[in-house]
Amino acid sequence: MFEICRVLKSDIQIFKFIIKIGKYWGPFPIKGNIVAKICYFVTALVFSIISVMSLVFEFKRSTSFLNLGVADIFIFFCNWTTVFIHHLYCTYYGKYFNRNSWNRFFHNMSTLDKFSTDRNLALYLIKIICFLAIFFCSSGAIMKTGGFLDLTHWYSKLAYVFWTLSSSQLFYLVVFWWETCNILSSRYAYINNARKKIVSEDTVEQQKSIKEITSVIVTLHKTVKCMNKTAGFFILALLGMSFLALLSCFNLFLVIWKYDDTLIFQILWCFLSCISCIVFSIIVIMSCEKVEKKAAEFIQTCVYIHATTGDEHAATLVNLAKELRPKFSAAGFFDINQRLLPIFFSNLSTYLIIILQFKISSL
């Protein structure tokens, strides 16, 4: 039993398995003949059109049932639109228009293969199971109670399936981003340890190690740039969805409190979905922060070596690492790091207070 818990797998093997799962599920380019690609896009397009029609009908029915005002409908509409745009980007745009960027990303990741590290498979699976529990807990609860959907109709079921599918695509991208950041941070840890060992090596080995470290730094920088270009939009969608979903649920809670407090139990289940989005947003932000910290540790190591030994190679690596420091971006709108958390929750609190001030007089 204990031997099973010690099963080790390289991080590259795990990463390739995640990519294999997302062959059709994720935003990656489809490999194969033209017939397979056409069949995929036709099937996906038909499903998307029918699902969107069902979603629009269900949206109109739900807002009419709850007798929501224009401002309330607008918040809900923004939330639904965020999921829909993400679905289009993941299912169509990402697979076709970002092919070159994805190919460059996978090429850079393959360059980092030889520096792979082993992972405890049991612990890794436990983390994935926790991710799945966070996601499916909210979806299962809403499905069980029905929320505000009348799941006896086929269009309501299809609307729910579409919503779950789009949310699942977003969940998959969270796992993909998290694992990629783990690999990048482990590579920074590798070159950090390699730089510490260079001091005791001869001149030939030093030059060889410096060249290898320089190559890894450049590859890591290129990989982060490709991630920002190919998957930055998904992170923007996740953060936007988290923000709007919580505003929607809070706003809906106040509406139900005023008109029909017997439905409060149903809206409480929807808060689970909001919490899931926020937890996943924090996971993404902290994963990016982890990579930046590992890069900063490498820079500090080189600064220390240069200050104590006067090694000019260390000074060169400091300048290179600072210039190519990893910076994650949400589609160019803002940087993704730990400094984003207080800004995110501060803005969220501000909007919640504004909504409460407008609603408090009518409660």
What does this structure look like?
- With 363 residues, the protein is an all-alpha fold.
- It has a domain at 99-148 and 170-360.
- It is built from eleven helices and two strands, in the order H-E-H-H-H-H-E-H-H-H-H-H-H.
- It has helices at 2-5, 11-25, 34-66, 70-96, 99-111, 121-145, 154-198, 203-259, 264-309, 312-323, 340-360, and strands at 8-10, 118-120.
- It has a two-stranded antiparallel ribbon with strand order 1-2.
- Helix 6 runs antiparallel to helix 7 (154-198), helix 6 runs antiparallel to helix 9 and helix 9 packs antiparallel against helix 10.
- The longest helix has 57 residues, at 203-259.
- 33% of the residues are buried.
- The model has no long low-confidence stretch (mean pLDDT 76).
Briefly characterize the structure:
The protein has 363 residues and is mainly α. The chain is built from 11 helices and 2 strands.
What's the SSE pattern? HEHHHHEHHHHHH
Q: Which bin fits the share of residues in helices?
A: over 70%
| Strand segment tally | 2
Inertia-based shape? globular
SSE diagram, text form:
Elements: H1 2-5, E1 8-10, H2 11-25, H3 34-66, H4 70-96, H5 99-111, E2 118-120, H6 121-145, H7 154-198, H8 203-259, H9 264-309, H10 312-323, H11 340-360
Antiparallel strand pairs: 1-2
Helix pairs in contact: 2-7, 3-4, 3-7, 4-7, 4-8, 5-8, 6-7, 6-9, 7-8, 7-9, 8-9, 8-10, 8-11, 9-10
